[in-house]
Amino acid sequence: MQASGVIFYFFSFIVVFSATLVVVSRNPVHSVLWLILTFFGASGLFILLGAEFLALMLMIVYVGAVAVLFMFVVMMLNINFRDLKSGFTRYLPVGLLIGLVLFVELSLIFGDWIPINFMNGSIQKAVDLELENTKQLGRVLYTDYILYFQLAGIILLIAMIGAIVLTHQRKRAVKRQDVLTQMYRDPERSIELKDIKPGQGL
Amino acid sequence: MTHLDVLTIGPELLLVIFCLISLLVASFYDSINASNLVFFSTIGLLILVAFLIYISPYKMMPAFGGAFVRDSFAQYFQITILLSVAALLILSKEYLVKYQLLKFEYPILVAFSTLGMLIVVSSGNLLVLYLGIEIQSLSLYVIATFRRNNLKSTEAGLKYFVLGSLSSGLMLFGSSLIYGSTGSIEFKEIYAAINSGGFLLGIMAGLVFLISGMAFKASAVPFHMWTPDVYEGSPTPVTGFFATAPKLAAMAILLRVLFDCFGSAVESWQQVIIILSFCSMFLGSIAAIGQKNIKRLMAFSSIGHVGFALIGVACATEEGIAAVLIYMVIYVIMNVGVFAFILNMEREGVAVTNIESLAMYSDVSPGQAFFLAILLFSLAGIPPLAGFFAKFYIFSAAIDSGLIWLAISGGIASVVAAFYYLRIVYLMYFGESKELLTGSMPVTHWILFVGAALLMLVGTVNLYGLDGPAKVAAFSLLN
Predict the structure, then answer these.
(1) Contacts with B64 from chain A: Cβ below 8 Å
(2) In chain A, how many domains are there?
(3) Cys-Cys with B73: which of A156, B110, B148, B473 at CB 3.0–4.6 Å?
(4) How do residues B360-382 score in pLDDT, each as one tens digit?
(5) Which residue of A has its CA nearest to B181?
(6) Does the beta carbon of A76 lie under 8 angstroms from any beta carbon of chain B?
């Protein structure tokens, strides 16, 4: 076996093993930690494919942001996981049946698959080893793929508008600091000096 | 990207730029006036974009390397979608003001979802199709929940969101299977790959997933579960919106994918569509009988109508496609009219959606009762109204392509469906009433309501000349 083969099996084993533990482990915090290990394994596989940009993105975005957010949600929201798992045994047979059907379907599809289009080169090679990933992405992102890129941007914008519309509470009672009014306040009119004699009130 | 690409996508680009600018302006000048301004300028802009698409000289040339195609088929659907959205926006004004929902985000989200529909309709590959659908549905989830203090509205939004994401996932999975088996996401190349490499099992599975996702968006049985709840819970103008433009877009993508991608493998998807159509027609007509809420009733009615339109898709002929195009336009006009009425069903300022409350409506307002009766007769497909001709075209296309039994069962389903439409007419004229409705209607609503009813009568003469454009559009889809 070649070295790349060994590395591939190593990372694949990590991915499959930790993904199983994400589902199985009892403590949700442990689940998230296993999920992070899954992401690490997957990014190792990406590097093996020569997609180093994707691998780093996976690290930064998924491990750095998404998994941490998950962790926050799990720790901060008081979700009763016992309630969530209560229907587990009841729905297990249905779930297994659907899983089995999908598995059989996919293996049938794989048996029928002819890599014809892949051999005559109608699919461009995913990675050109001459150039690094970032450069390649930069070349197509705003040229060939501008439509997709901008549409994806619009989707993110809508998600943002939606989150604001649905959660933003406009509080009229809150007093905000207005720096300009503070600065233009006239001391002559705002401060009154009084001379108070000792032993007397105002 | 060349300047031709930009010119081709110009109308959509205008819509995006408008949305961004009004978003900025309105959030800085956050007031009722700004909301009103955005609201009316959105309506104006939608009509303007429809006009620009109508006169656009840059068609037939795929832009962005085939990702965006504005052929006659796309034009036909885009203009209909834009006009129906504009009509529904006009209708929603009073409701939003009444429930203090008139925020500038509403027209902007509606405009964004319209943008998604426009892109979906003229998509040239699976990726643009998916992105367009996401733009469309994400905005729809938000406006379904727009009355966020209302429990039913939030429930509707959440249900729609969860099930909608599932269906998007199914579509994406199907697309990836198709990509794996054909080596391309371009509709044209998938078509070519099926012709040269045969119809692999992977393509078949991918196609089934794709159809399930699209059937969800069109709310065809058995993917209709969300429809009654979402229609009932959403604010009424949003329900009206759901019943019109997104249905058009869903039918358009179904036609686009089935004929552009899989036009050479008709026998492999025809059965699926026939079953979807058959189940939708019968469930739509039978389940609606027991409904007491008119919004739920319209939900089942829309499921039934999608079933009828799917007969035309199942024909897989040019005649069938043209029949679907005509059917959808007439369906949308009827729905705009009916929702203009539903929005004004109230008693002493409180909105009512109970069907029983329509009893003796003919006493309150004979004119409105008469026009609503026309619309309902047309929805039921009773000659000589336009709704009848819509069904007639569909059934004759089915008979010509050998689907006689489907046409016959469609006839039976429409007879069953006629019961619940006619029951409303019965209630309005002969029902026993305890409390009458108020029966007032703003002028804009009255114009759209009566206009839709009159169009049903005028439609009997020549179907507004839709015949020609529909044929051209169907032809452009098939070639």
Answers:
(1) 146-147
(2) 1
(3) B473
(4) 888 888 899 999 999 999 999 98
(5) A113
(6) no
**CB hemisphere CA count around B473 (13 angstroms):** 27
Q: A124 and chain B: CB distance < 8 Å anywhere?
A: no
The closest CB to that of A148, out of B127, B145, B201, belongs to B127
Q: Over pLDDT 90: what percentage of chain B?
A: 65
Digit-coded pLDDT (tens) for B331-354: 999 999 999 999 988 888 788 888
Q: Is residue B215 part of a domain?
A: no
Give the per-residue pLDDT at B479.
76
The overall average pLDDT reported for chain B is 91
Let me know if residue A134 belongs to a domain.
Answer: yes
Please say if the pLDDT value at position B478 is more than 70: yes
Residue B74 distance to chain A (closest CA, Å): 18
B89 located within any domain:
no
Bridge-based pairing of strands B346-347 and B350-351 is antiparallel
Name the residue of chain B whose CA is nearest to A165's CA: B105
Flag whether A182 is in a domain. no
In this prediction, residues B390-419 reach a mean pLDDT of 93
Residue A146 lies in a domain: yes
Task: Sort out which chain B residues have CB atoms less than 8 A from A139's CB and list them.
Answer: none
The CB density around residue B169, as the number of other CB atoms within 10 Å, is 12
Identify the pLDDT of residue A73: 84
Residue B338 lies in a domain: yes
On whether any CB of chain B is under 8 Å from the CB of A147, the answer is yes
Is the separation of the CB atoms in B12 and B6 below 8 Å?
A: no
| pLDDT (0 to 100) of residue B65 | 84
**Which residues on chain A are in Cβ contact (under 8 Å) with B164?**
none
Nearest-angstrom CA–CA distance, A90 and A94? 8
d(CA A150, CA A156): 10
B9 with A147: Cβ contact below 8 A? yes
B24: contact with A, CB 8 A cutoff:
no
Residue B41 CA to residue B269 CA, distance in Å, equals 43
Whether residue B88 lies inside any domain: the answer is no
The number of distinct structural domains making up chain B is 1
DSSP state, A173?
A: S
Determine contact: B9 vs chain A, CB below 8 A.
yes
Domain that holds residue B385: 265-479
Domain-located, residue A185: no
* CA atoms of B245 and B268, how far apart (whole Å): 29
ipTM above 0.95 for this complex: no
Domain limits for position A134: 129-169
Record: contact B135-A154, CB cut-off 8 A: yes
Q: What is the mean pLDDT of residues A73-94?
A: 78
Task: Tell me how many degrees the CA angle B3-B4-B8 measures, rounded to the nearest 5.
Answer: 120
